[in-house]
Design goal:
The chain is of the alpha/beta class. The chain folds into seven domains: 4-75 and 865-888, no CATH class; 78-203 and 825-858, von Willebrand factor, type A domain (Rossmann fold), CATH 3.40.50; 212-319, Immunoglobulins (Immunoglobulin-like); 325-430 and 615-710, 3-Layer(aba) Sandwich (Rossmann fold); 438-598, 3-Layer(aba) Sandwich (Rossmann fold); 719-811, Macroglobulin (MG2) domain (Immunoglobulin-like, Sandwich); 899-928. The chain is 30% helix and 28% strand. It contains 22 helices and 47 strands. The protein is extended. The two termini are 51 Å apart.
């Protein structure tokens, strides 16, 4: 029986669902109208034709509303898809994860419905799909898991809901210990419940009976130089335990027990919380890093009283205030000597280091109030340091001074770097400047190294990012299909979108010969309108070396080639690439270590700068124009002449240009960037371009004023910061006093929190008491956080009535909360199962049916076919027009068909009779000629012969030897030729001539009959 259901939104008739059933109400109305109108409009048609036309029209007017009602074909699903969400975080013991994988395999082995599906999602700090729900999934395969030091079960559930198939009923299986460090699995379960997806849970149960956790290391957030700091180490022990505690200060161990061997101290921990105090004296300024490390006793090769080593360490940082200090980064201290002498005369302490000795963390950078980049190029620094330096200025309030030179600004590869945003000038030359541009061709060969394809794409992007928008760049590659081609032809870089899209299409084929690639690169570069033309080629060195005639062309056109040999197979490969670069005036780089591999992007940036020399202006001395308003230039109305600088562009917004050069180019600019300040001086501070400056009487004053303007304001001993960890958040408390020791009220704080991943967050402090300010920040990531605050408050004792200053503090989270869990959280998983209508599984695969239909509502798959209904309506409409406009007499058509077959049989019989008569006449003529009889006698004899032949046609005749003798037969014997007596053909009878008028008569009779039939039909119509 056909099922029918109807709602305001849809109507279902059997397997068909109409989403807009209101249109179906037009069908009976249209049918009535068609029948009434057809009584007159179709009156001229015959009876059968008229009813056919009415039927076709009724079908057409029914199909049109049916198509508008949006019909869909319904199919109810029969299979079930189970998505397994596997907890892969490090809080779950490895043995428990293996048990979970075995459970899934056993459950698949006991599955008897082959149409059901299985999907796998792993969830740790992030969730990843390992296998989409499919009939082909036969187990758990872990490919990419992401960081394992966190658990976000909610992300796994949400991802499972996103990938669930629509044509199957769905269940989820959550396999976890129930401990989550981020997200809320209960909220995700609410979503699953709303979507009708039950979540079964399989708790991974465990409990550590012996464990020691270094809960935290508490130190003052700030202190003064020479002050004694009281460190407090808080340890948590599940059972009494023994071990050794070590304290490190800036990487050096503190002697906790002078009377014992070693620098640590033996500790005897009781069950529960243990607090140990350690006094340490702050002997230097800047951030002081402390580390507490607990080592449990070891017996028979295993730790006693401890199971997880990741939680045996804690960190803390104390900022010790003192005299301001500046970090000067330069590759040639002698070149910077004039500048350093000016700093020394101004009593500004400087630490001078080359690029490879810079601080490795943001916390260490905060030991300095400002950083000076003295004619430094970008390729000398890692990407991380550049990001840390930008964050140091923006989020921690540090100062930045970039001094120009041939290796600085755009000429030094800083275009597109993270630090570019911190500078008060744009490194790309201004659009109005007509400057020689560079042309760079990248020749790419397969990089046979771990993640070689990814590395190859990154180095291409690094090189392109260091070019200006006007420079030309192209990429030549040997594809895996064979043949060398331009992946991206030489063209202006622009915004970089086009060439970066081409970079993603690189395949890094293994070329057999360098010649085709270098010939193609030469054809492009030789025609390029560029001042500098350069090729960077990366390879393992095994392709054949090009002939010298090609390299001579490069030399003649002054096109240089630099080669980067990555893991060459032999010394000969290295020699080949070094030969190419040396012949053309380029450089060769040999990379065969993991560290060298990491530096390849910097090599490409450095080599890309070969085409950036056009950004340097050098010429006759000129006087830069001094612009009023610069605080760091107060008291100076003029400056000496300069002979060169790196071309940059003025930055809009808050940036302030204080010295202007040729064509309005910035020579000196400054601005506030976040909490910090930055100054850019595009000329140099030496005798290369500033010969008159070094002997200028105000040289020291110029640099001192700019350095003091850019440096972070000194801290106040009357402002103290303390931090307190509360789960995933940290409470920051500031207690402030004025110069007289009174509570400092109504202060305004502007703060930033520098996160371990390089991001920054605003810090909002509100006054909660007299001289007391408080705020809360999110600190759920492991690592070090730096809190930087600048404050201003009314103070009548100050000259301008305002007291200003800055203060810093550090928040440390040495390890993730993942390592604080000591047992499973089965109760949470039970809530998830109860909320969604799922089950709590026991872990015995043979007793569990993961694909059970219980509690599931089988989904219905819908497929729209309104378009086909509309096409059918259009087709039948054309048929309707044909039936009405084209005269069709169905009875006559039938009669014609039947008559045609009848006449065909008659004509066939007549034709056969004619053939027989002709044959008889032919026989009679033959007999007459042979015997000389009269025609009548010959005809009779022929007919008699035919009758005899018909009687004997089925009889098999075999003559005897005697009969053959009597017969008049000539037989050739022994190969002799038989001679046959000639026979004259008999004359034809005269009465055998054909009658010419017989066929024409039949045709006239048929034509007359057709006219009579048509006349009768016209009479019926009238």
């Amino acid at each position: 029986m056909m099922a029918t259901s109807f709602t305001l939104a849809s109507m279902t008739v059997g397997p068909v669902q109409f989403d807009m059933p209101v249109w179906l109400g037009l069908i009976p109305i249209l049918w009535v109208m068609v029948i009434l109108m057809s009584r007159r409009s179709l009156a001229g048609l015959g009876t059968i034709t008229r009813w056919v036309a009415i039927f076709v029209r009724l079908v057409v007017v029914a199909l049109i509303p049916a198509a508008m009602a949006e019909p869909q074909w319904r199919r109810e699903a029969k299979d079930v898809a189970v998505t397994v969400i596997m907890d892969s975080s490090e809080s779950v013991p490895t043995s428990k994860q293996k048990e979970a994988e075995d459970f899934i395999r056993e459950a698949l082995a006991h599955q008897d419905r082959k149409e059901d599906r299985l999907g796998v999602i792993t969830s740790a700090k992030s969730a990843f799909v390992q296998a989409l729900p499919s009939k082909l999934t036969r187990g758990v395969e872990r490919q990419h898991l992401g960081p394992l030091d966190g658990t976000d079960l909610a992300a796994g559930v949400r991802l499972g809901l996103a990938v669930k198939p629509q044509d199957a009923a769905n269940r989820m299986l959550l396999i976890t210990d129930g401990n989550q460090t981020s997200g809320s699995v209960l909220q995700a379960a609410e979503t699953a419940k709303a979507m009708g997806v039950p979540i079964d849970v399989l708790p991974l149960k465990y409990k550590y009976s012996e464990e020691v956790i270094v809960d935290r290391l508490v130190t003052p957030a700030s202190a003064r130089e020479g002050e004694t700091l009281n460190l407090r180490v808080v340890l948590q022990a599940v059972q009494p335990a023994k071990g050794r505690l070590t304290i490190l200060m800036n990487g050096e161990a503190v002697d906790l027990d002078p009377d014992s061997e070693g620098l640590g101290a033996r500790v005897d921990l009781k069950q529960g919380i243990n607090v140990l105090s350690v006094p340490v004296k702050a002997l230097s300024t800047g951030p002081q890093r402390f580390e507490a490390d607990f080592e449990p006793d070891v017996r028979d090769g295993r730790m006693v009283g401890d199971a997880v080593v990741q939680n045996n360490k804690s960190l803390a940082v104390t900022f010790v205030s003192g005299e301001g200090k500046v970090l000067v980064i330069t590759e040639d201290a002698a070149e910077a000597q004039h500048f350093l002498d000016a700093m020394s005369a101004a009593k500004i302490k400087c630490d001078v280091v080359p690029a490879d000795q810079v601080p490795t963390s943001l916390t260490d950078l905060n030991a300095f109030d400002a950083v000076v980049l003295f004619n430094e190029s970008a390729y000398g620094f890692t990407q991380k340091f550049q990001e840390d330096l930008r964050q140091y200025v923006h989020d921690t309030g540090g100062g930045l001074l970039m001094v120009g030179g041939p290796n600085a600004f755009g000429a030094g590869g800083w275009i597109g770097s993270p630090l570019e945003d911190a500078l008060p000038v744009k490194l790309d030359p201004p659009q109005k400047r007509q400057m020689p541009r560079g042309a760079l061709a990248l020749v790419m060969h397969s990089v046979e190294a771990p993640d070689g394809t990814f590395l190859g794409k990154k180095v291409c992007e690094a090189a392109v990012n260091s070019l200006s928008r006007l420079d030309l760049a192209g990429i030549v590659e040997y594809g895996w299909g064979g043949g060398t081609e331009w992946v991206h032809k030489l063209a202006p870089v622009g915004d970089g979108t086009a060439i970066k899209r081409s970079i993603q299409n690189l395949m890094f084929g293994d070329m057999p010969d360098f010649t085709p690639s270098l010939e193609l690169a030469y054809e492009g570069l030789s025609k390029a309108d560029a001042g500098q033309r350069h090729v960077i080629m990366i390879s393992d060195g095994d392709p054949a070396v090009p002939n010298t005639s090609l390299l001579d062309k490069y030399v003649d056109k002054k096109i240089t080639i630099s080669t980067v040999g990555v893991y060459p197979h032999s010394g000969a490969d290295t020699s080949r690439m070094a030969y190419i670069s040396k012949y053309t005036g380029g450089r060769h780089y040999h990379v065969n270590t993991a560290k060298g591999l990491a530096n390849i992007p910097q090599i490409f940036i450095k080599e890309a700068q070969t085409v950036r020399r056009s950004l340097i202006w050098e010429g006759q001395p000129f006087l830069p124009q001094v612009l009023l308003g610069g605080e760091a230039l107060r008291g100076m109305t003029s400056v000496p002449a300069i002979t060169g600088y790196v071309v940059t562009a003025e930055r809009e917004g808050l940036a302030q240009m204080t010295l202007k050069g040729k064509e309005g180019d910035p020579i000196l600019a400054q601005w506030q960037y976040g909490l910090g300040k930055a100054v850019a001086y595009t000329s140099d501070a030496t005798t290369r371009w500033n010969t008159q400056w070094v002997s200028w009487a105000s040289y020291r004053q110029f640099w001192e004023q700019h350095m003091r303007w850019v440096m972070r304001p000194g801290g106040s001993a009357n402002v103290r910061v303390s931090t307190e960890n509360r789960g995933d958040q940290t409470v920051i408390t500031v207690e402030a006093l004025d110069a007289a020791g009174e509570r400092l009220n109504f202060a305004t704080f502007k703060g930033r929190l520098a996160l371990p991943d390089g991001r920054g967050l605003d810090v909002d402090l509100k006054q909660v008491g007299p001289g007391r300010y408080q705020g809360v920040v999110q600190s759920d990531q492991p690592g070090s956080y730096v809190v930087s605050l600048r404050y201003a408050a009314p103070d009548s004792t100050q000259q301008d009535g305002v007291i200003e200053g800055s203060v810093q503090a550090a928040v440390t989270r040495p390890y993730a909360d993942e390592y604080r869990t000591l047992e499973d959280n089965t109760s949470l998983l039970s809530q998830v199962a109860e909320l969604t209508g799922g089950r709590v599984l026991t872990g015995i695969a043979m007793n569990e049916d993961l694909w059970t239909r219980e509690g599931l509502k089988m989904p219905v798959a819908l497929r729209a076919f309104w378009l086909w209904v509309a096409i059918a309506a259009i087709s039948l409409f054309l048929l309707d027009v044909g039936v009405r406009r084209v005269r069709i007499d169905i009875p006559a058509m039938w009669a014609a068909v039947v008559g045609g077959f009848t006449r065909q049989e008659a004509r066939k019989a007549e034709h056969v009779g004619s053939l027989k008569a002709a044959r008889e006449q032919a026989r009679a003529k033959m007999v007459q000629r042979a015997s000389g009889l009269q025609p009548e006698q010959a005809v009779a004899q022929a007919r008699e012969a035919v009758r005899k032949a018909e009687r004997l046609s089925g009889v098999k005749f075999e003559a005897s030897a005697e009969q053959l003798k009597r017969a008049n037969v000539n037989i050739a014997i022994g190969g002799a030729e038989a001679r046959v007596a000639p026979t004259n053909p008999p004359p034809l009878p005269k009465d055998a001539a054909a009658q010419p008028g017989e066929g024409m008569g039949r045709l006239l009779k048929a034509k007359q009959k057709a006219r009579e039939e048509m006349g009768e039909e016209e009479g019926e119509k009238q």
